[in-house]
Every structure is written in structure tokens, then in C-alpha cells.
Amino acid sequence: MKKTYQIEVDCANCANKMEAAANKTQGVKEAVVNFMTQKMVVEFGEGQDPAAVMKTVRKNCKKVDDDFEIFL
Amino acid sequence: MTRKQKKTLRRILISAGLMVLLAFLPVTGWLRFGLYLIPYLIIGHDILRKAALGVKNRQVFDENFLMAVATLGAIALGLAGDGDYTEAIAVMLFYQIGELFQSYAVGRSRKNISQLMDIRPDYANIETAEGLEQVDPEEVAVGTVIVIRPGEKVPIDGLVVEGSSSLDTAALTGESLPRDVAPGQAVISGCINLTGLLKIQTTKAFEESTVAKILDLVENASSRKSRSEQFISRFARVYTPVVCYAALALALLPPLTLLVLGANPNWGEWVYRALTFLVISCPCALVVSIPLSFFGGIGGASSAGILVKGSNYLEALAKTEVVVLDKTGTLTRGTFQVTAIHPEGLTQDRLLEYAALAESGSSHPISRSLRSAWGRDLDRSRVTEIREHSGRGITALVDGIPVAVGNQKLMEEQGVSCTPCTQAGTLVYLAMDGVYGGCIVISDLVKPQAREAISALARAGVRRTVMLTGDSEAAAQTVAETLGIREVRSQLLPGDKVSQVEAILAETAGKVAFVGDGINDAPVLSRADIGIAMGALGSDAAIEAADVVLMDDDPRKVAQAIRIARKCMAIVYQNILFAIGVKGICLILGALGLANMWLAIFADVGVMVLAVLNAVRALFVKNL
Predict the structure, then answer these.
(1) Do residue B385 and residue B426 come from a single domain?
(2) Can you say whether the dihedral through the CA atoms of B161, B166, B171, B174 is positive or negative?
(3) Is B445 left (phi over 0), alpha (psi -120 to 50) or beta?
(4) B445-495: per-residue pLDDT in tens?
(5) Could you read off the pLDDT of B160-169 as tens digits, one per residue?
(6) Does B511 fall in a domain?
């Protein structure tokens, strides 16, 4: 399953870091951060609950840079 | 400017003002240190906090950490030595100015490009008892009649039920010539109604409409990252730690060596050089300008009616060496027309009339072109006993006389000897009452821009153009000669086209693009490196299958797409080389002690500003 989220990220390098952080999160099959459109496209693994996974994604991303925001 | 940007600007101004003020205060020692700490903290507190957070979360190597270490180091050097703290504050100040500029410039270009692609309709008008009511297009059910006034956007695909007008399709196709519509015709969402009031019965829901599909496609385009973008994010991941360790080595190794050699280790100087190193180490210019260039290129292309589904395809398009084109619908109009009539024993009119009558019941493209060539009303009651002979033609009784219309095989079956015609095209023979009556040549017309399109491809640097077609050798050769195409593969079945493209792929080092009209050639579109579908306005299949979608059916757009891609890639490479080059030079100068921190920060911010401005150039595609 694939879902798109609106995000707020300040710089392109931060966007790269968010992408790396999201990809390392358990339950995420693939995450792509699009700095230009300020969107994150997340593909979830088999049988994962998107809401729960995204909570962890948000936490992990905040760890990297707390200016980052995902609108869930 | 956003609130955040305004806040940063205020901090920059206050801190810069304080710095100027402090320069005139004759204080020394700890008091001086304390006073200078104020502007430093005003401008740098968020960086310090983020750096501390990064260390806590074991995400050490980022630009915040580098800036924190560099400026704190500079302050420590000032405290130990001459009491000069301005450098640390200035570095932080310039860093913040650079960040502010970046976020402002990027935000602006983001907005500009998004506006360019803004074809989203805001509302749809529905007729109610009280007059027109504006509703959200997403809420309009299929089959509803909506009203579009002059100047408004068509929100949903549909059929005109009342009124006639001309539509501006420029936002979709880049084509400035308006398109006329009348009742019964289909209209596509995203066009602007120019002259008259239109009533449209919707045939699709908003999400299924052309405009929604295009928006979705363009917005997601930059999510498919190109190899250059992947290279840059990998580079950034490696670059920062490498520079950090190099800085550490620079701070420790030379003084230690000097110490061993018994010379003056000169710690202050080497630490300063190492700190300069750290300032240069932020990969921001690269990381921001590359995706911005692609975003600009994709945005610019879409304003010319060329939709590129991802940065990776833009990159591939720039490397196109071979363009394979389908004939029908791509280079030719795809509609058949009667181009010659050769009667034998009948008048030209009669030959055409009888052929049209016999074929009056069929919906085959050949029959349709016969009927439209006849152009007058047909009395279908004159035709009886119509029999279709699959793959050969039709026999029927017209005015009670047996008529056979079809290819040579049908004539042979009917025992009619005909004069074989050598003209290229589809040949339709007619026999009346067992006697040969003549031959009608039907062929597909070449698009008026096709010849120019082929020469434009060569000018754009495409080395080889190949035309594929299912048509006969003769028909294919005629078209190829008119257009100046040397390589032709004819009489191909749809499956053969895939194997032809595969063969070309195998013998080509660069990229192979296939151009088709999206009908029947989806497998070929997806097999080629770049599948280009044209005339996509209203054809969902083409939008799905292709990597690059040309909104109208002008074949010249293929060359334009390649030129846009080449320009965009040139900008990307310029930025990569420029940013890495300048950083490299500054690192060397810094290590040799020839560059101070001021130069370093100017190099960093300056490179970024220039790279961003260069990236914005990708947006301008009008003259390509």
C-alpha cells in the first residue's frame, strides 16, 4: 500500500536525511521525500498499519531535525 | 516570506546591528567576551540546539554540528588569543543569510513552477432552481450537466449538450490556437472556455478526469529520482563525514609532526585552518540545486504540453541516441482518406457512390473514409443482402445489382480479373455484376509537421531515426521518402514491434526512445528506454503506459522534449561541477592557510546562490 503525506521540510539536504530516516523505520518498504512538492510517499510493508508506522516515522524524522513536520 | 523566514531576517538584522555597535565599544577581557556572546547566541542559538540534539541522537555529522564546532572553535581561539570574536559571529551570520536566501529562493521558484502547472479547477457550476450554484468538482456525479461560462475552466471531462464556443487548450498542450467545440463533441477538463456559454454533461468523475490525472502525474514526477539526484544524496552522505575527519586530521597531524620535528607546533593556526575546512563542508548548494533544476525542467516542459513522468526520464531523454517512431497516428494522421480514384468503364462518381453504398453498413475505417469521400447522403434502402468477407471486403446488392468491394483476393474469389494498381496505400477494387469497375486508393495522410519533426530530431542530436509500421512495404516507403527517414521496418505485427525495439536496444549504447500514439503499442512504449505517447489529450491508456506524454499530436514536440531535457541536464552538470569545484578549491586553499573563514563562508553561500539561480534557468523552455 502506498500513501502520500504532506510534509514541511526546510532544506533539500534535510529532505534527504528525512528520507533516510523514514526508510530505516520498521514497516516502511520504501519512502520517497519530494522536497519540491513537500510530500512524502510511503510504501508500507505487507500487513502494516499505516497510522502506527507513520507515528514512528514522524518520531524518527524529528530525531534528525525537529523542524520537520508530517501532517498525518 | 513565511513567518519563519521573517523571524530569521529579524535575528540577522539585530545581531548584525549589535555587532557594529560592539565594534565601537572599548571593552576588553571577559566583559568583551560576554557582550559578544549576545549577538552570537541571537543568531546561532537554533544551530547550537540542533547540533546538541544531533549529538544526543547520534546524528552527528550535519551542517549544524559543523557550524557549531567551527564558530565555537573560533570563539575559543579569540578567547585564548586576540579577543577577536567577530569572525565567529560573522560566519554564523552569513550562514544564516545563506540559509534564508536558499529557503526564500527555493520557495519562490517552487511557487512559480507550481503556478505554471496550476490547471486545477476550483469549482463547477450546477444549474439549480435558484440559478447557478458553485460546487466542488469532486462532488459532481457522472452524468450531471454543468455550466461553463466564458473565462472559466472546464472542471470535468464531458460532452457538450448545448452551446458552442472555442476552448483555450494552452495550459494542457502549449498550443495557442483555440479549439472549436459544438454540441455532441467531447471536451477535456483543464481547457479554458473562451467565447460562449457551454452546457456539458460530465462523462467522468473528477478524479478520473484528464486534469486530475495530469496534476497527479506532474506532482509525482519529481518523486522518481534521477541518477544525478541519487548520486548527490549519496555524495552528501559521504562528503560531510570525510571533510570532518579531514578537518580533525588537519588540526592534529601537522602540529604533532612539527612537535616531533622540534619546531613550533603553532596549534592556533592549524586549528583555525581546520575550522575553515568545516565551514566549507556543507553540501547544501549541491543538494538543493539539483532537484530544483529537475523540478524546473519538468515544470517548463509541462508548460509546453510535454509531461515527463519523472526526473529519471528527463535524464534518459537527454541521452537519446535513437528515436523509433510508429507510423500510423504518429507521423501520419491515422485517419484514412481517399487519395485517388481509377475508374474503368464507370464514371468516377458512380464508382465512389457504389463503393460507399456497399460499405454503408460497416464501421471499418476504410468504409468510413469511402463514405466521407462520397460526402452526400446515402439511401441505405438501396442496399440489400450485405455480406462481409472477413479480411477481404463486402458483397451486396445495390439497386438489385450484385456489387463486390474489397481487395484483390475478393476479386479473385469472385472470378473478376482486375488491373492491379501499383499506388501505395490500401487498394479497394470494385466489381459490378461480375465486371471490373475500377480501383480506389485510400491512404493515410502525413502530418504537415512531420517532415520538420524528423529534421528537428537530427538537429537535436539524435543519431538514428527508425520508422516502424504494420503497413505494406510500398506505403511505408512512400511515407519514409516524403519525410526523409532512411530506416523503415514494415509489415510488422504488434509483437514484431517489440522485438524490433529490443534489437535496436541491443545495438545501441545510448537511450532508445519509442514514439507512438498510445493505441496498441503499450508493450513497445514500456519496453523502450523512454516511451513517448502523443496525442494523449483524452487517451488514458497513453498516459498510463508512457514515460513522456505529449499532450497534442504534434510530432515536433519529440525534438523539443529532447532539447528541454538536454538543457536541464546541462544545468545539472554545470551545478555539480561548479559546486564541487569551488568547494574543492576552497578546501585546498583552506588547508594551505590561504583562505580564511570569511572566504570560506562567502564561497559556500555564493556557490549556493549561483547554483540556485542557474537551476531556475531550467524553467525557461519557450525558445527551445
Answers:
(1) yes
(2) positive
(3) beta
(4) 888 888 999 999 999 999 999 999 877 787 788 888 988 998 999 888 777
(5) 998 889 888 8
(6) yes
Q: Which residue has the higher pLDDT, B118 or B600?
A: B600
Cβ of B485: how many Cβ atoms within 10 Å? 21
At B539 the pLDDT is 66
Asked if B462 is an interface residue toward chain A (Cβ–Cβ < 8 A), one would say: no
Nearest to B57 among A19, A35, A63 (CB): A63
Task: Provide the greatest CA pair distance for chain B.
Answer: 121
Write out chain A residues lying below 8 Å of B5, CB-based.
none
Output the domain CATH number for residue B541.
Answer: 3.40.50.1000
Phi and psi angles of residue B431, each rounded to the nearest 5 degrees, phi first: -125, 135
Contact B99/A at CB under 8 A: yes
Asked if the Cβ–Cβ distance from A10 to B225 is below 8 Å, we say no
Class for the domain spanning A2-71: alpha beta
In terms of CA atoms, which chain A residue is nearest residue B53? A63
- Mind listing the pLDDT tens digit for each residue in B264-311? 888 888 888 888 888 777 777 777 788 888 888 888 888 888 888 888
- Together in a domain, B460 and B550: yes
Range(s) of the domain holding residue B457: 306-332+446-562
In this model, does residue B116 exceed pLDDT 70?
no
Note whether residue B37 is domain-resident.
yes
Closest CA to B121 of B188, B177, B178: B188
Mean pLDDT, rounded, of chain B: 84
Same domain, B95 and B185: no
Whole-angstrom distance, CA of residue B539 vs CA of residue B556: 19
* Same domain (yes/no): B25, B161: no
- Whole-model pTM: value is 0.77
Q: Give me the sign of the Cα torsion angle B325, B330, B332, B336.
A: positive
B274 touches chain A (CB under 8 A): no
In a domain, B618, yes or no: yes
Range in B62-66, B228-232, B483-487, B568-572 the model is least confident about:
B62-66
User: How many domains are there within chain B?
Assistant: 5
| Per-residue pLDDT tens digits for B486-529 | 899 988 877 788 899 999 999 998 899 999 876 677 788 888 99
Do B453 and B316 share a structural domain?
yes
Is position B326 annotated as part of the catalytic site? yes
B455 and B326 co-located in one domain:
yes
In the 3-class helix/strand/coil scheme, how is B499-518 assigned residue by residue?
Answer: HHHHHHHHHCCCEEEEEECC
The alpha carbon of residue B142 and the mean position of all alpha carbons in its chain are separated, in whole angstroms, by: 30
What distance in Å separates the CA atoms of residue B264 and residue B494, rounded to the nearest whole number?
A: 80
Give the residue from chain B lying closest to A67, CA to CA: B50
> Is B292's CB within 8 Å of A66's CB?
no
ipTM: 0.72
Among residues B157, B168, B326, B553, which one is catalytic? B326
- What is d(CA B350, CA B365) in angstroms, rounded to the nearest whole number? 21
